[in-house]
Structures are given as structure tokens and as C-alpha cells.
Amino acid sequence: GELFNQANRVAGWLNEKGVRKGDRIAILAKNYPQFFPLMGGIAATGAIMVPINFRLSSEEIGYNLTNTEPVLIVVDPDFEKTIFDLRSICPSLREFVTFGPGRGNYTPFDSLLKSQPAKPVELSGDDPFIIMHTAAVQGKPRGAVISHHNLVFCTIQNIAIMGLTREDSYLNILPLFHIAGMFGALVMMHVGGRNVMISKFGPKVAGKMIDQEKITLIGEFPPILLQLLDEQAKGEFTLSSLRNVLGVDLQETVKRFESLGHGQFWLAYGQTETMGLTSVCSNRERPGCAGKPGPLVDIKIA
Question: Are 65 and 93 in contact (CB under 8 A)?
Fold first, then answer.
């Protein structure tokens, strides 16, 4: 479809710029719909995506860059100057792309979609696809390596557990640089549903969008759901389409959501290093637990 074509065109542009299998491509941006063809294009070239937390300080962003040595970086307009100022500490960077209109050294991402499409390179499912920094040790985060199969099997597992279909839709409240946000978006993409983007969470805007777009799934960490429920109680929106909420929260908040009578809360535990969700189950099954191991997960208590 259209997304597949766009991803192959992005891959074609990357090939033209000399990006090869194993090269790293960094992303420093809020949630943008262009994230999806970019991710597909990176996968098609066999390159490795390095999503960076946009809430980090300039020094911390610089560490992520020097730690992974990307050859190319994609930013949204808010971070063009940040990366421009960090160029000297990351000499590996050869190309700069922006989700904005483009200026100076920055190529506008939309122009990539006009390139000739490339055929995907041959890959193994165990080839690395993402390096995601997490869990600082001695003040420095580690880069967790996630393979293509890690992503595929994790999404398949949770589509089955939650009974998702192509009729579902997901609101991208959580940032795509985080494993939980990326996981939620890829689950919905894999099942053939709709991904709806929001660059910054606000309970009024998000709640109204849930009603307007008939969103059936969100991922959340406190206080997202509590803030949505507080606004819903004021009559701002109904949340009537929201059948599934996946995340971690206080039982008081979970019960308040489920008392609306529209949906259920899925309790989950996971880590970036284990590709997102390790255990998950409906709160109705065992309230307050951390979920149970998924069908494709093998857990050992040592």
C-alpha cells in the first residue's frame, strides 16, 4: 500500500546517500506520522534506528550520538539547532534531515518520498534493527539492541492476547522514542488498524480525539488515565469507544476507568531489554498483578 511505497522510497534515498546495512540512523523528534515510513525505510536498508529521548539535555543527547555514531539524523524543527550545535562532537554524521520545511544543512523529509524506490536488502530476523538507550548505569544509559524478530513476535503475541483486529485504532499518546510507545504503534500497524498521532499529551485534546477518532486502545503511565477520567467527569468527552487501556496504574484509577462500562485495563510489565511486554493480563483476571508471561515468553526466577 501507500506506506510500503513510501518506505521503499525512503530506502531509495538512503541508498543514494550511501547508507548501508548496519549503519546507524538517529531520530530526535516528537511524534510525527512520518515516523512510520522512516522506520520502514531504515528497515528496508538493513540500517539500525537510534530513537533519542527529546526530553534529554543537550549533553545527554550528545552522549547518545557519540555512543552509537550515526551517519544520519532525522529531527523535527524544534531540535534542528540542538543538533547543529552538537555536530562537532559527532563527526560520523554526514546527513541531516528534518520533518520541517528544510533549511541550511537540513533536507526536508518530504523530499525523500520523491526518490526512486529501492528493493529491501536481504536480512535475518536476528539482525539488529533498533538501539534504544535505557536504564542509566553509573550515570550513563545503555543501548539495548532490538532485532527485527523481537519486534514482530512481540506484536503478534499481544495482538492475540488482546484480541485486536483491523477495526481497532490507537492514539499515540506515549512518545515513539520509548519502547512502550513504539510497541503500541507497531501492534496497531501489524494488525492493520489505525495509528492516530498526537505530538504532546493534554487530557482535553486527547480525550476529544479519542471520541472523535473512535480510538479503541491507548497505552498509559500515571497520571495519563487519571487526567483523562477527571476531564471526562466534567462532561468534556465520553471515552465510550475506548475498549482497551494498556499500562501500569493505581487500582483506584483502574477501577474508575472500568466502572465506566466501556472497556478493560490490561496490566503489564516489561523492559526495553526484553522488547517491551514480558507479562500482561486483563485486570479482571487478577486485579493489581503485574500480568502473566505471554505465550511467546519464557521466564525463569533465579
Answer: yes
On whether the CB atoms of residues 43 and 120 are closer than 8 A, the answer is yes
Q: Is 265 helix (H, G, I), strand (E, B) or coil?
A: strand
Closest CA to 80 of 56, 96, 62, 57: 96
Task: Name all contacts of 287-294 with Cβ < 8 Å and 24+ positions apart.
Answer: 287/251, 287/254, 287/255, 288/251, 291/266, 291/267, 294/157, 294/158, 294/161
Task: Please name the amino acid found at residue 66.
Answer: T
pLDDT per residue as tens, the chain (302 positions) = 899 999 999 999 999 999 999 999 999 999 999 999 999 999 999 999 999 999 999 999 999 999 999 999 999 999 999 999 999 999 999 999 999 999 899 999 999 999 999 988 999 999 999 999 987 677 788 999 999 999 999 999 999 999 999 999 999 999 999 999 999 999 999 999 999 999 889 999 999 999 999 999 999 999 999 999 999 999 999 999 999 999 999 999 999 999 999 999 999 998 888 876 889 999 999 999 988 998 888 888 88
Q: Whole-prediction pTM value? A: 0.94
Residue 154 CB coordination number (10 Å): 25
Q: How far apart are CA 234 and CA 120, in angstroms?
A: 50
Edge-to-edge order in the sheet of strand 72-75: 106-108, 95-98, 72-75, 24-28, 48-51, 128-137, 140-147
Go through the domains of the chain in sequence order and give each one's CATH number.
2-123 (3.40.50.980), 148-293 (3.40.50.12780)
